[in-house]
Write a structure and sequence with these properties.
Blueprint lengths: L3 E7 L8 H15 L5 E12 L7 E3 L11 H10 L6 E3 L6 E3 L4 E3 L3 E10 L7 H11 L3 E7 L1
Antiparallel strand pairs: 1-7, 1-8, 2-7, 3-6, 4-5
Helix pairs in contact: 1-3
Length: about 150
């Protein structure tokens, strides 16, 4: 039986909130998802790819909407070689300069050095909850829902 995890990450892949904001964010996140299961926060040495395992259906160009299924894996591999230090890419469809983080991931995915994860959470936070959490953490956030 599959379980679900909700990861909440800063929209800026390199941003690590200061420790006070991290603590407040984790406390608030935990209160929002307490019924679901454990909450864990992590700060990674390098940027990590936070993928919606089991949920990823499509990756497309943010400019023209073209399907990038035959391209994004190689682009990700090249970025991984530099430990995601450089996420910039040029899409093959319309030559749009963007980043891997800004591709249209369906389900949402992202890159991060800081993440909060709620185990056994099968849905996203409500917009109002996400807004509260963004205020506590001090930056825009992205939600990544994984089926593991």
């Amino acid at each position: 039986m599959a379980s679900y995890h909700l990861n909440v990450i800063p929209s800026d892949p390199r941003l690590i909130p200061d420790p006070t904001r991290q603590e407040e964010g984790v406390r608030l996140f935990r209160s929002m998802v307490a019924r679901d299961g454990p909450v864990e926060a992590r700060v990674h040495e390098q940027v990590q790819f936070i993928i919606p395992m089991g949920n990823l259906q499509r990756v497309s160009c943010p400019k023209c909407g073209a399907d990038l299924k035959d391209w994004w894996g190689d682009a990700l591999g090249r970025a991984r070689e530099s430990q995601f230090a450089d996420l910039s890419v040029v899409t093959p469809c319309c030559q749009h300069q963007t980043t891997l983080n800004d591709l249209r991931w369906d389900f949402p995915a992202g890159f991060a050095r800081f993440e909060m994860e709620a185990e056994n959470r099968g849905d996203y936070l409500e917009p109002g909850q996400l807004g509260e959490l963004e205020h506590a953490i001090g930056c825009p956030l992205r939600q990544v829902l994984s089926r593991v």
